[in-house]
Design a protein that fits this description.
With 248 residues, the chain is of the alpha/beta class. The protein contains seven helices and seven strands. Helix 1 runs parallel beside helix 2.
């Protein structure tokens, strides 16, 4: 058996309709996993890309604006890989930031992530003699830095890093790996405005030792590794995939 093969595994990826989530779903499928693409908008494009490449995928509707939306998703579903990718960002000066924006960001980025992981772990741990499971949370460089004009997002991603470590402490000995990926500046629709600003693009690239924007596939490949047996002894890690940004 290959250390890196995900054949025979079933994964759920939240926010799989576009960008990083789509790349993660495709990468897991390329490694052999059956992938369930979850989101509040359709993931039909992602599913089709996977099927066109010979993989197996389907989509489900999951609106994590309700933090408990996934509570019944895992029961009897045979899912042993969970990627908590869904997230939102709201920008405003801290003096002007509203409670509604704070709650919306924290509900999806932190509360839903925790309760989705809880529902997954309850199902995995109820299986006597099972093979365990893998949880991969998507954090951010703002799990380490403060940022500007994104108070709830920064707080939520610091929380994702902390929860990743806490859940690893509780579940590592019970067969569940919990880790996180902190993406750097990735070329997706979410960063299009930045990439179209010549001055900001210059500033960003000057800081990145790799001298390029990341690709969604860079995150997808890391997720596939963390989901594999090759990462069996990695617990509670928050891995920066940032072209060296944090090292500069």
């Amino acid at each position: 058996m290959s250390w890196w093969s995900l054949s025979g595994h079933r994964a759920l990826v939240t926010g799989a309709n576009t960008g990083i989530g789509q790349a993660i779903a495709i990468s897991l499928a390329q490694a052999g996993a059956e992938v369930i693409c979850a989101g509040r908008s359709t993931s039909a494009e992602t599913v089709q890309k996977i099927r066109d490449a010979g993989g197996t995928a389907r989509e489900i509707h999951l609106d994590l604006a309700d933090p408990m939306a996934a509570r019944d998703v895992f029961s009897g579903a045979g899912i042993d890989i969970l990627v908590n990718n869904a997230g939102i960002i709201r920008r405003a000066d801290s003096l002007d930031y509203t409670e509604a924006d704070w709650d919306a960001v924290m509900d999806i980025n932190t509360k839903a992530l925790f309760f989705t992981a809880q529902a997954f772990a309850r199902e995995i741990l109820a299986q006597e003699g099972g093979r365990g499971g893998k949880i991969i949370n998507i954090a951010s460089l703002l799990a380490f830095q403060g940022g500007i004009r994104v108070p709830a997002y920064t707080a939520s991603k610091h929380a994702v890093a902390g929860l990743t470590k806490l859940l690893a402490n509780e579940w590592a000995s019970r067969g569940i790996n919990v880790n996180a990926i902190a993406p750097g500046y990735i070329a997706t629709n979410n960063t299009q405005a930045l990439r179209e600003d010549p001055e900001r693009t210059r500033q960003i690239l000057e800081r990145i030792p790799a001298a390029r924007w990341g690709r969604p596939e860079d995150i997808g490949a890391t997720a596939a590794f963390l989901a594999s047996e090759g990462a069996a002894y990695i617990h509670g890690a928050v891995i920066s995939v940032d072209g060296g940004w944090m090292a500069r």
